[in-house]
Amino acid sequence: MTRLLTARLELVPVWQADPEAMAAAMNDPLLRRFTLRLSEDTGPDEMRAFQQDSQQAWGEGRSYQFAIFDRDTQAPIGGIGFRADINSFGYWLTKDARGKGLMSEAVSSVLAYLFDVVGVEMIKAGTDPDNHASRRILDKQGFQPIGCEQMEAANRGGVMVDCDMMALSQEAYRLGKTNAGCFGAAGVSLAQPLVLVAAAVLIDRDGRVLLAQRPDGKSMAGLWEFPGGKVQEGESPELALVRELREELGIDVTTSCLAPLTFASHAYQGFHLLMPLYAIRVWDGEPESREGQALKWVALNQLRDYPMPPADLPLVPLLFDFLG
Hints:
The chain has helices at 19-25, 29-34, 44-59, 102-118, 132-141, 170-178, 183-186, 237-249, 315-323; strands at 4-5, 9-13, 63-70, 76-83, 88-93, 122-127, 144-153, 159-169, 194-202, 209-213, 224-225, 228-230, 260-268, 271-280, 294-298. By secondary structure, it is α+β, with helices and mostly antiparallel strands. A hairpin with a 5-residue loop joins strand 3 (63-70) and strand 4 (76-83).
């Protein structure tokens, strides 16, 4: 089942979380004030019912609800989800987790999943006019105001309240990764340093793809990615890839035709990553771990089972087109 990892968070389907811990995390007056669909009496029993409904809805493609965990403490600190049946996006964090940029991290990861994997065309979100923090998160991701709508507030006895409505289309989301006029959608500015990385899709005779797991001690540890590394000053991406694959895996790809298959362009916090991706079927030697990373040959139809960095995730559907 889908699991999303970021630098500081782990997001899992909500029914995999402990209902009592989730209900306790939601016991916050400010949270109940602004989360319109959270009723005043949400407890473990109500959470169990919500989890059961969410599991069924996920399987039917109607709703995708995640519980947010702190990767260091493994404590539940929030929730985030999208109801496709009513086109509604929402999220919440516990009091102690707010003000640290964690929700922006979670929202960015879930948007990538919804647009790149699920294939959602449009996402809408409604915020209480007084919930300025929630509005800022949407602004940073590129959501645009589309007016005011009335929503039923379960936390206020079912009365209708005015909400500021925001929307983000898949087209605008993708433009936000490359268009300087939409850099706010990616959370970057023109002053962000550009990091050039070359990566490889190594394909064996059975059509499997090699993935490498980022080891402990590195950012985004535990995520699976395509092997490769940074392009050093004075190197071309092709020469960097030859060097990195020799250093990381002990293989030689100098006899391969290094033609790029596609590229990734993604804004991380503090830098913007540009990564050409090369498809390689011929090399000398057997890939082995030389830098402490786990390696795994993965069948094409199982690639989505492995949590990846946000930059790698959109490349998977392209591989289906190329190898499928």
